[in-house]
Amino acid sequence: MVFFFTKYFEGHREIMKSIDDSERIPIVKGIGKFFVTLKVIFDLVFTVFILLVASNWLVGLMS
Q1: Segment 36-47, tens digit of pLDDT
Q2: CB 63 within 8 A of CB 53
Q3: Chain centroid to CA 40: how far?
Q4: DSSP string, 1-62
Q5: What is the DSSP letter of 63?
Q6: What whole-number distance in Å separates Cα of residue 58 and Cα of residue 56?
Q7: 20 touches 30 (CB < 8 A)
Q8: For the chain, how big is the Rg over CA atoms in Å?
Q9: How far apart are CA 60 and CA 54, in angstroms?
């Protein structure tokens, strides 16, 4: 599981680097970085939610 998150954040870092290296105007770079970061936040919130639901379900099965 840790390998997945490591690769995910490496991909995020590469996308940010490619946005920085592009020859677009700064405002477009900023908008691109904002949306990429927003996607990462939504993905992490969704993943944490799924993990909490799954752990709650497992605890419920043990009771």
Answers
A1: 999 999 998 998
A2: no
A3: 3
A4: -HHHHHHHHHHHHHHHHHHHHS-S-HHHHHHHHHHHHHHHHHHHHHHHHHHHHHHHHHHHHH
A5: -
A6: 5
A7: no
A8: 17
A9: 10
The count of residues in the chain is 63
CA 18 centroid distance within chain: 17
User: Per residue in 10-46, pLDDT tens?
Assistant: 999 999 999 999 999 999 999 999 999 999 999 989 9
pTM of the model: 0.74
Token pair 């940010």 is at which residue? Answer: 16
Burial (Cβ within 10 Å: 0-12, 13-18, ≥19) of residue 57: exposed
Q: Which residue has the tokens 């969704």?
A: 46
